[in-house]
Amino acid sequence: MTADGEIIHFDNVGLRYGTDREVLSDLTFTLHAGRFYFLTGASGAGKTSLLRLLYLAQRPSRGGIRMFGTDVITLPRAELPVMRRRVGVVFQDFRLVDHLSAYDNVALPLRVAGHSEQDLAGPVRDILEWVGLADRMDAPPATLSGGEQQRVAIARAVIARPAMLVADEPTGNVDTDMAAKLIRLFDMLNRQGTTVVVATHDLDLLRKVPDSLIMRLDKGRLSDPTGALRYPPRKLT
């Protein structure tokens, strides 16, 4: 993170797959630490592609991206995994490991990072309690409801305390009440200092976080790249 609170900066970024036309074009914007962003747009607008750039699953076809003060375009591939650990991801399809319990799914990022079983047990139990699943720690994903699976996915995404959380349509597979609860969880994380980016087509959700900022994609372009996105960071309480 830079001194002015910049966490990510895109400079004239474009993305195409193969020889097809660009799915993202001329993206220039800055995301600041401690802010809550909603990414909206019609189906096919490029939301998932933009998220893939944000969590470094995809390199752009052109332009520059700076994350946490580092030029990630020139960053050696061997150093990308370390950078990726600073970003938590909640996928639309959850991507839980079927043969692992809720506890083991959440513990997975800490185990990959080399934490001992003794050191990770407390944090994993605490965060499962925080998302309301203290009594479902031993349950495999197949026995959990859609909302419970989503909360496991959220817990896994934030267990390593990432600087930024990226969520792709996180409320698309749950009912209205659960969607509101999930957004409250994201808002709580944001108030603790995590920058949050939520892609959604549900415009009703935007009112759930009154001081959130809105990024609107239209056919691969941001409709207002120089407006709200330059708003200063939220003051943490």
UniProtKB/TrEMBL annotation:
Main location: membrane
One Pfam family matching this protein: ABC_tran
The keyword Repeat appears for this protein: no
Keyword Cytoplasm among UniProt keywords: no
Residue ranges the record marks as coiled coil: none
Gene3D superfamilies: P-loop containing nucleotide triphosphate hydrolases
InterPro entries assigned: AAA+_ATPase, ABC_transporter-like_ATP-bd, ABC_transporter-like_CS, ABC_transpr_LolD-like, Cell_div_FtsE, P-loop_NTPase
GO biological process terms held by the UniProt record: cell division
GO MF annotation list: ATP binding
Intracellular or extracellular location(s): Cell inner membrane; Cell membrane
Recorded topology in the membrane: Peripheral membrane protein
Domain ABC transporter, first and last residues per copy: 8-237
Keywords on record: ATP-binding, Cell cycle, Cell division, Cell membrane, Membrane, Nucleotide-binding
Domain of life per record: Bacteria
Subunit note: Homodimer. Forms a membrane-associated complex with FtsX.
Task of the protein: Part of the ABC transporter FtsEX involved in cellular division. Important for assembly or stability of the septal ring.
Sequence similarity: Belongs to the ABC transporter superfamily.
NCBIfam families: FtsE (TIGR02673)
Protein's name in the database: Cell division ATP-binding protein FtsE
Species name: Novosphingobium panipatense
Gene assigned in the entry: ftsE
